[in-house]
Design goal:
By secondary structure, the chain is mainly beta. Helix content is 14%, strand content 36%. It holds the Pfam family Lactamase_B.
Amino acid sequence: MHRIASGELYRTYTLGDLRITALRDGYVDMPVGRLRQRGDKPFGDELPEQVALVGGQLRLSVNAFAIDDGHEITLIDTGAANAWHPTMGRLPQALDEAGIDVEKVRTVCFTHTHLDHIQGLVLADGRDAFPRLVRLLVPRQELDLFRTDARLERFHDMAEPFEAGDRLGTHVDIIGAHGHEVGHSCFRASSGGESILIWGDTVHVPSLQFDRPEVTWEFDTDQDQARESRLRLLALAAGDHYLVAGAHLDSPGIGRVVRSGGSFRFEPL
């Protein structure tokens, strides 16, 4: 995988015959108390010094990823638009900076239905962000959750369910990664002998959870299942030499996972 273009809000890489673009929607600051130990107990250990805080809080990047196969562009997650913190909602600028024509985005897929992944379907001014969208794919277990979102009501009937094991065209298949949300999913894109796992919220705090993957997140719907999914995907990425792309890995959010003793280490690309 090689970088071929970059800017303030994007990085574009080749992956075989594909182009993968990391797009920065912004960031969100969260209290340290969002980190959890087993039994949904607040994280009680002293934070390792490599975990940097900003104003006493954890700063999480918010990223989306575009897959261009030369014929059409598939977008994985869409950021938050103006539906949450004002530090997010920069996906339209990121797409423009990357030279991605929003009219060529024909498929949008969600790793899960939390608002910082889905609300970017609608621009801050109320217009459709992707005017020629023809497919909107939502985890089957979260289809009803998606259809309760009033801001995205115009998309309720368009939404199609997918499940782990499904394929999207020639280059992408879906791996279950449930736990953070009931249908949380990972998209594996492969071409030219290389693969990347676009894994949504598998890791929230990269400076901690690669080294200590047992640490969970308060907003995990099922913390035990989220922990199991994280360990499984980390082992898969390290064992099969896959790249990973995370919604909350530090922008641009792409790198490799390597084993480090009995744990793991993230190496940014």
